[in-house]
Design goal:
two-stranded parallel sheet; alpha/beta; 12 helices; TIM Barrel; binds zinc ion; disordered N terminus
Amino acid sequence: MYSEQTKTTKSIRSSIIKKITALAFDTGLIRGGRQLWSKSLTVLNYHRIDDPHREGFASFLPTVSAHPDEFNHQMEYLDRWFNVISLRDVINWLAGRHSLPPYAALITFDDGYLDNYTTAYPILKRHEFPAVIYLTSGHIDTDVPFYWDLAAYCFFHTRVDHVLFPDHTEHFWRNPIDRAKVSNSWIESMKALPETQKQEWVSRLPEKLAVSIPHNYFRKLMMNWDQVREMSSNGMEFGGHTINHPILSRIPLDQARVEIEGSKANIENEIGKQIFSFAYPNGKRADLDPFIENLVKDAGFRAAFTLLNGPTSQLEARQNPYAIRRIFIGNHHSLPQFATLLNPLNRYRS
Ligand SMILES: [Zn+2]
């Protein structure tokens, strides 16, 4: 009863916030005091651009950043209110070679999903926007899934009705909605484990949920190197995101060095160009530290991006170019909410 009431209160609150946000968007209030933040650097972070309600979608929902139509609307919004810049512009600015335009915005994608090529790239081209894609190099052009996509596939296809969590609690579901919630919590619970334990739990999951995964199933989830090269020669930029996507603060520093340097060498070798920037896997405060930032610097990267919330001031980015904030875009964000996220006050939310 208590939890039902809490749920109702929460949903009323969220619908009121949505209405206020929509009103602020319509009246322009959302951009109030805009001239005060003309010298901010707004870096957007996307993962996948896809329709999660299409038939056959059996991947991890939180990695979908926007439906293609929504993504297009977001790009139209950027076109109207921001100056979209390239990573090269950021690097040249950091080196003191030129200044950034007012309301500078950089578009980034993490991981290297195929829909970045098939869906996001044509929309970006239409708007003549550059973007940077951070590649997990060991997954590009392979059948190797990210653990969250492998787990999501297993939960989506299982006939079993329960699963064991790392804290040894058993979680049950009665319908697909409950199952999706358990699936998301199970995947989230993996992030707290040391890397080796996480791999053990994930590798046992298909058997525990009695699911067999078709051969080469995950090959169609990620880009291949030819697609990367094509985009690279047409103005899209690439950066490092490790080889295997470990959370760098949860592995020994020597191993972190291999992940950081290895992804750089691998990508540069494939595209035949130097890369200048890096994005930390997961990217929250607990996922990086000054030792890891130094490894990134020593590897020859000139800038690195976190997932700490919100736009950053140009001054702050210049002071530490190895921890530049980004705004995480999620598929539940309406256009007014998207506009709210781009307001610098947003960074104080977390
Ligand atoms: Zn990632």
